[in-house]
């Protein structure tokens, strides 16, 4: 699984290079775009990352002016993440690449097999699967 993940990471990093992004950075931008202004904790949970890893991933996006961190108006201990105007434009360009890559993946892997694979990967990424796997490890 790790070898496959590294290979796909290389392929997608190369695809997103014209936008100046890595695949992980696109995933972050995409989740922010879908959520609007998520709290850091919510975003980390959605991405299946811990807060420190998310902070590390956000640093270059903030530095490059794509993402902004703001203190939550209702809970000043919480920070919200949002796309800047430049971030919105970069996300739109990267989204076109993502759609193109999804189409290429479906053609290379087969549409039905790709749909089944995505469903399986969603299950593996779920909290329920992690809990079931960890419960079996305790036996």
TrEMBL record:
TM helices/strands, residue ranges: none
Record GO terms (molecular function): DNA binding; DNA-binding transcription factor activity
UniProt entry keywords in alphabetical sequence: DNA-binding, Transcription, Transcription regulation
Domain HTH marR-type: 1-126
Domain of life: Bacteria
Tagged with keyword Endoplasmic reticulum: no
Protein name: MarR family transcriptional regulator
Species name: Pseudomonas aylmerensis
